[in-house]
Specification:
heterodimer, A: about 400 residues, mainly alpha, 2 domains, 15 helices, 2 strands, about 80% helix, B: about 450 residues, two-stranded antiparallel ribbon, 13 helices
């Protein structure tokens, strides 16, 4: 049972990280849309963008992590969810397409009008995507996704009161998190006006998200009483309380301008909601399908767990490096010139010999790969062909660039 | 123990728009694969040029590496989204495939997800780190991007190779049991030729596209030291890779002949199992016969079997319902090989002039050909994938699960297809606009007063 549940814990942790990190990224887009069309608003937009630029792709990949681990370890559940919720997931996908594209497009914008248009698309898709993903979660939470290929209703599975509530709550939480993070960034970089702006926005969004969450409890009660009941009992209740308390503490921290702790406390508030949702349903994934029944075979689970752990050992230090650079403001520091430490002209050592060796490798590689039939010959042949490319490149490019060296 | 499963996972699904689902997948894939080529090879070239800059102290290299890295970042951002589209489509379009075999092949994508993660992290560090990290740390931050370009392709191709040559599981009454994902993905002989063929294609495609841009600059009269260097590096990579691609392609075809004989028969339009089979070029397959084709006696047997009178299995050896659409596969194959031959011709001209004259070609025609070479290489790349994927039909998992058993039962595929196509048109126009803007940015030498050695 432990092995069968462990990957789901990874998946949920991925969902929580995606909500917290990717969510802040979506929220930045939210604030860009609602920034006034004047110089102050322009600053807000620009700041939101430059804060997220270096990290958005990494934040986004949590979603890929969630999808791939989920379909590897719980394939039936994945197939059922993706096919029934196809419409709303496709809407989320369109949002992801346009958000990512506008990040790339911004590199080419030169006038304010161009920037304005790109930012509008960016912001609209930043709202659409978390709403759609939240609505999809609502469909699963209210047992509207049965087991099977598109077995549920394509529309009412996500167009229902609970889905809409969770979608709206997702957008509000993203806005809240983003405002906290951006206020923290602004305070660190010494932009007092921007810090004030984002602090006010964080307080407003925090109160609003809290109000929506409380109102939502009544929506869930009316729409799907079972979920209401299980959320407010047992371990799920504990998670709900943690979320509530963390939310309140975050508000106080923002109010007293202690943004760094607020950043983490806000993340806990959001992650606790994900945990509460999972605990309320445990051990069911979909109606009539428990986690144990949905899990893949033993070997797959073992490999997947090893893979996630091994990947994590490489991934987390790298992520820490990225965030340390980002949080230390290194990506926005003034640029230094790289000093010319070792200045020496490029010399091709014996290009003729290297070129002849490359040709010999090509001929030998051809013989081993295309005339011989043994597997080992093919393996050696491939290595020879790769060496042919590398040596050929060395022979040509080094002498070509040596001749085109700058006049000194 | 897995009592509940997809009700009749192998029953055909009631889906009128299977063809549209396949086209939507093909569209998403074709868009993504071009960006993958840049993901594979561009970091290597950018890093090489940056290394040259530090090594020679010549600012021009650093300027070039920096400008290229901006393009690399824009292409990567678009690649992130087109890749996300593909992973969504695994569930949106083919839930029965993923639902039934996710436990067998899914691990490949999970590892690919990690390498994608590392790529995203370090591309952020590399692109935003220019001038803000020490030269050494900046170069080092580029290395994971190069490595993940390889591991990412390895994982995705491992899944595709498994779909073409499945193993590592057993079927019992429609249920997948005894799954050994490691054996399924990496113990597969089909993996290696596919991986190498694609990885080398990545260098061919992006090398020729980049070289084409500077060939265009030359024809427009911009031909300074910057353009010459910026053309020489990708062009040398592309031409050498093209030469290597020939033997690799032949190896791949022989592996296809032994593991997927029906795919080979479709590539060649061969109906009857034949001894000493001729190689057919072009032509049109109709009524179990390839009309108007040029036949070269015995060549197919020699290529596929290494023997003058070797037997080559024909389409007739399987029932009509198990045969792929012949004309699509045959023409895609001929287009790929034809373009590959043309590119090899360009490569031979370039390398020969280099060996004998020690200079770049001077003929305007050569540079015109280079402009055409990039798009042609893309056509060849996509044709090659058409051969692999359409040639596998009607199977999604070769010989195990049919495509019509894999597709979603949801309605509205046509709407999704249209919306995705429209979105991609918008993204393509936007990307073209951005790349043009980046190319037009003035070539300011990024030389400020030499800074003192500062500590960050």
């Amino acid at each position: 049972m432990f092995l069968r549940s462990l990957p789901l814990v990874f998946v949920l942790a991925g969902v929580a990280l995606y909500t917290v990190l990717g969510g802040a990224d979506f929220g930045a887009g939210f604030w860009q849309l609602f920034a006034p069309r004047n110089e102050r608003g322009e600053q807000v937009r620009e700041f939101a963008h430059h804060s997220m630029g270096p990290v958005w792709e990494a934040n986004h990949v949590w979603l890929i992590f969630v999808l791939t681990v989920f379909w590897t370890c719980y394939p039936k559940a994945f197939g059922s969810i993706a096919s029934t919720l196809a419409v709303v997931l496709f809407i989320a996908l369109l949002g992801i397409i346009f958000r990512g594209a506008t990040y790339a497009f911004r590199a080419g914008a030169s006038t304010d009008r161009e920037l304005g248009r790109i930012d509008t698309i960016f912001s609209l898709s930043s709202i659409l995507t978390p709403f759609a993903l939240g609505a999809a979660v609502g469909g699963i939470a209210t047992n509207r996704v049965p087991v099977g290929n598109a077995a549920g209703h394509l529309f009412s599975s996500w167009l229902n009161p609970t889905s809409i509530f969770i979608g709206v709550l997702a957008v509000a939480s993203c806005a809240y998190l983003a405002a906290i993070y951006l206020a923290a960034d602004a305070a660190r970089e010494g932009h007092q006006a921007l810090e004030r702006d984002f602090r006010l926005r964080a307080l407003g969004a925090g109160v609003l998200a809290g109000a929506i969450a409380i109102a939502g409890i009544f929506v869930i009660n009316a729409d799907y009483h079972t979920l209401f009941h299980s959320l407010l009992s047992g371990r799920a209740l504990a998670a709900v309380i943690v979320s509530f308390v963390a939310g309140l503490v975050t508000l106080m921290l923002v109010y007293t301008r202690r943004y760094e702790p607020a950043r983490y406390c806000g993340a806990i508030a959001v992650a606790a909601i994900v945990a509460g949702w999972a605990l309320a349903r445990w051990p069911t994934i979909l109606p009539g399908l428990t986690v144990a029944q949905a899990a893949a075979g033993h070997d797959t689970l073992v490999w997947a767990v090893l893979c996630v752990l091994g990947g994590g050992v490489i991934l987390f230090p790298s992520l820490a490096f990225l965030f340390r650079l980002a949080l230390a403001g290194r990506f926005h520091a003034a640029e230094r010139n790289v000093p010319d430490e070792i200045a020496q002209p490029l010399r091709a050592s014996r290009p003729g010999l290297v070129a002849r060796l490359a040709v010999a490798l090509l001929i030998a590689g051809f013989g081993l790969l295309n005339i011989a039939n043994a597997q080992w010959a093919h393996a050696v042949g491939i290595v020879f062909l790769v060496c042919f490319v590398v040596l050929g490149f060395r022979a040509i490019v080094f002498s070509a660039l040596g001749e085109q060296a700058a006049p000194r | 123990m897995g009592g509940l499963s997809f009700a009749a996972a192998f029953a055909p699904v009631d889906q009128h728009y299977l063809l549209e689902a396949r086209q939507m997948q093909a569209l998403s894939f074709s868009v993504h694969i071009v960006l993958v080529c840049f993901g594979i090879s561009f970091p290597v070239m950018v890093l090489f040029v940056e290394w040259l800059g530090h090594r020679t102290g010549d600012r021009l290299y650093l300027t070039l590496a920096r400008r290229w890295s901006k393009i690399m970042a824009a292409l990567f951002a678009v690649g992130v989204i087109t890749g996300t589209v593909l992973s969504f489509e695994m569930g949106l379009l083919w839930p029965n495939f993923t639902g039934t075999f996710g436990s067998v092949f899914g691990l490949g994508f999970a590892i690919e997800g990690f390498s994608f993660f590392m790529e995203a992290i370090f591309i952020g560090i590399y692109v935003y780190g220019w001038g803000r990290l020490s030269a050494r740390v900046h170069m080092l931050s580029g290395i994971p991007i190069v490595l993940t370009g390889f591991t990412g392709s390895l994982m995705v191709i491992a899944v595709n190779a498994w779909m073409n040559h499945p193993g590592g599981f057993r079927l019992r009454g429609g249920h997948v049991t005894h799954v050994d994902p490691f054996k399924a993905l990496f113990g597969n002989t089909y993996l290696w030729h596919e991986l190498m063929h694609m990885y080398v294609a990545g260098y061919v495609v992006s090398g020729f596209i980049l070289a084409g841009c500077y060939a265009y600059a030359r024809l427009r009269g911009r031909w300074g030291r910057y353009e010459r260097i910026a053309l020489t590096i990708p062009l040398t990579v592309a031409t050498l890779a093209t030469i290597a691609q020939g033997p690799i392609g032949d190896w791949a075809a022989r592996d296809v002949a032994s593991t997927q004989p029906i795919k080979l028969a479709a590539m060649e339009g061969l109906y009857k199992t034949t001894k000493g089979a001729p190689e057919h070029l072009l032509g049109w397959y109709t009524g179990n016969h390839l009309k108007f084709a040029i036949a070269i006696p015995h060549v197919l047997s020699i290529l596929a079997d290494h023997s003058w009178n070797g037997t080559v299995q024909g389409l007739a050896s399987v029932p009509p319902s198990d045969r792929p659409p012949v004309n699509v596969v045959h023409w895609a194959f001929d287009i790929m090989v034809g373009i590959g031959t043309l590119l090899a011709l360009v490569a031979v001209v370039y390398l020969a002039i280099w060996v004998w004259r020690r200079r770049l070609p001077e003929s305007t025609w050569f540079y015109r050909a280079l402009i055409a070479a990039g798009p042609l290489a893309v056509v060849a790349l996509i044709s090659g994938w058409v051969v692999t994927e359409v040639g596998r039909q009607p199977w999604v998992v070769y010989g195990v699960m049919r495509t019509d058993q894999a597709v979603t039962g949801a309605h509205g595929i046509v709407v999704g297809y249209a919306a995705l196509a429209a979105a991609y048109v918008v993204v393509a126009c936007g990307l073209a606009w951005v790349l043009r803007r980046l190319a037009q940015a003035p070539l300011e030498e990024q030389v400020e007063p030499p800074a003192q050695l500062q500590v960050a």
